[in-house]
Amino acid sequence: MLEAISNIESDIGAMSKDGFLSGSKTQRAVINRLIVIGEAGNTIVQLDSSFLEANSALWQHSSGMPKKCGSS
Asked: Residue-wise over 15-29: b if at least 16 C-beta within 10 A, else e?
């Protein structure tokens, strides 16, 4: 997860919002890393369900999001 976050920071750098929105290659890279983070989070919860209960604030904003981008 930390590596994926670092990769996002590296991919975006000092890029402006407009620069990010106009760069589909960067958008795809960031989306890919967000998928990695989400899948890692799901794996953690599957391995230790008490983690979710103890850290529910981490997941409160992601509820309702598709498991992978493009799914509904």
From this structure: eeeeeeeeeeebeeb
